[in-house]
Amino acid sequence: MEQPKYKRVILKLSGEALAGEMGFGLESTVLSSVAEQIAEITKMGVEVAVVVGGGNIWRGVSGAKRGIDRATADYMGMLATVINALALQDMLEGLHIDTRVQTAIEMRQVAEPYIKRKAIRHLEKGRVVIFGAGTGNPFFSTDTTAALRAAEIEAEVILMAKKVDGVYDSDPKLNPDAQKFDRLTYIDVLNKGLKVMDSTATSLCMDNDIPLIVFDMQTNGNMKKAVMGETIGTYVGRE
Fold first, then answer.
1. DSSP state of 20
2. HSE on the CB side for 100, CA within 13 Å?
3. Which of 67, 94, 114, 158 could form a disulfide with 102 if both were Cys (CB 3.0 to 4.6 A apart)?
4. Is 161 exposed, middle or buried (0-12, 13-18, 19+ CB in 10 A)?
5. Within a domain: 94
6. Domain count across the chain
7. Considering just the CA atoms, what is the radius of gyration of the chain in Å?
8. Domain harbouring 81, CATH code
9. What digits encode the pLDDT tens for the residues 40-96?
10. What is the pTM of this model?
């Protein structure tokens, strides 16, 4: 049996992607599909940690534009990510996948506090670890959380699950002539201002040599293809 190329991965899920076509809240069919794909690669022996966003419920930047203090708005967004983390945990456990939610803001009644060594131990035991509440600090995105946690737990790659099949030079929904990139360097992403992840997260990945694979999560089997090292989506790395 062919072995996965990556043994330990961070899966970055945006909140918007979890909303599906509704645009707000959680779409059960999307959540179910993501859980099934995570279960598939976990059963292959891949250690999976997940970072979830909260944009399907609340976005700190948008809240700040409405007059809410930016730090307060960001903390509200962190709480939204925990809602998504608990929903994903419940869906995974329905598939008999042992799961732990760890949060950067303590809320012991619903999740463990984030402890690096404990997270790694869970992964070694075959449990999926879901990181909620971002970094626990305002002004930092969940993209940065994914890069930070990947560096801390020594993940080999960050899988960026999107609603598009890779990175384009412009929005493919608005521009039918948009060109898709198969491979990019971190510098390309920064210089071209491509919306893979924010500049802080991209720089952190570059400094720690953590590659990214941007792929379409809406197609079943894509997550497996990514961990097997098949050519899929857009690869971002040093070369």
1. G
2. 22
3. 114
4. buried
5. yes
6. 1
7. 17
8. 3.40.1160.10
9. 999 999 999 999 999 999 987 788 788 999 999 999 999 999 999 999 999 999 999
10. 0.94
